[in-house]
Amino acid sequence: MARHLITSALPYINGIKHLGNMVGSMLPADVYSRYLRQRGHDVLYICATDEHGTPAELAAKEQGLPVDEFCAQAHDAQKAVYDGFELAFDYFGRSSSPENREITQHFARRLNENGFIEERSIRQVYSPADGRFLPDRYVEGTCPHCGYDKARGDQCENCTRVLDPTDLINPRSAISGSTDLEVRETKHLFLLQSKLQSEVSEWVARHEHEWPQLASSIARKWLTEGLHDRAITRDLDWGVPVPADTWPELAAEGKVFYVWFDAPIEYIGATKEWADQDPENRDWKSWWYEADDTVRYTEFMAKDNVPFHTVMFPATELGVREPWKKVDYVKAFNWLTYYGGKFSTSQKRGVFTDHALEILPADYWRYFLIANAPESDDSSFTWEHFTATVNKDLADTLGNFVNRVLSFSKKRFGEEVPAGAEAGEPEAKLGEEIATLLAEYETQMEALQFRKAAAALRALWSAGNSYLEEKAPWLEIKTNPEGAALTLRTAMNLIHLYAVVSEPFIPASSRAMRSAFALTDDTAIWVTTDEARSLNSVPAGTPFTVPPVLFAKITDEDLEAYKERFGGAPE
User: Where is this motif: 'HIGH' region (predicted)?
Assistant: First the structure.
């Protein structure tokens, strides 16, 4: 079987993420990883918190914490949420790790040796009160376009215009609040992407036909506009330091690498963090170095991250002139909006992942988000849509099927799977239908078409309900108890099949369905076509229990309470 390396966009350290972040990277990567593991592949799913950059320093300052302590606490808080969503990372690292520092500095040295880094003088805002140059985000003021008085030096959050610090009216330091600012000359390192334009274009051309149109079009747009040399250092206290053995003057000034330079390298760094925990059994380089022929690398990210991972990071890897693994497939997503508008922490609009878990178990969210993933275009979260999906697909189609089959069988035949008659034409017809639907589900999962995969999974669940309605064991038992027992035994085998194949979407509910049957040797990892046709993995005589209700319906009162707490449609 193939070796699959999977990464998702690194969540930034500053704050708990909303549902859009979850569905745009980490959750689909988890679903795909789980599926591949079930199909017998060797999978390594790597992610990490992205901890460097101005926002981390500012957030730490607001909380009155040293930035390293703030990041450590925030990493643990985010990891707890991802554990709650059952994201099965093989490793969830930190971009502030020694491993990432080591590899980032190695990349910088190699780029410099190969002529792709240049030291240049630029003019930058300096704050005498703070005794330091201020990165763009450390300068605040009034936006000249909309009058918003808390605009940053890189962009106005209110009107979204891109800004330069010198554009701001009444600029001030975000650190001290001082308005005594100057523009001085300072030196920074620039990555000469312009010299790598043709190589990156050739590399993208070899891969873009396989990528989703969203990913390939964004990469091509950047390349068409031309790659520009980019500053890759900043004046910050927190970050990967510029190595003194190569740039002693800049190192003495405390320069660190720009977060977008070191963050993608953290995929490699986190893999080394993982390997360093068990060096005798884990080889990080086998996943990243000279691995083009042995590893299939898939990245998951929202569209705003696509340029950095399809152009900027590949340019870095190409410029190093070493055989580092580059991405094979980029699964890009559009935005998930909240009633058509942005999620906003400051305005308390939208659902954030920690709050989501406070009100409903993870499987409700996992299924809804993947079934409505913003693949071809933006999709909108509304409480009405969420409620309808949960009630129809999860509570009625799947949950009700499981509950009524097991409850009715226990009531009429006891706590063991009944034997009943031999399978007949309806069961043969059902088996063929299940095998066909399972093949469709596999096809869509292999193609990373998550909405279509969810539709195929839903169709599998619906097939069980149709069979049950056709056979009507509650009527059948009155005249043909053996036939009713056959119907229920077949339905129980469907429940076990659902437990196995639904695991990537709803792992907790899958465990509950699977544990309902006291099978002595339940080692099924996946369901083969023949097994799907025969539906006999749970034999007669197997003890079973009726699990608690898998999915509770969301009531009208619940709906109104959620909208009251999180906000509904904008006025």
Answer: 11-21
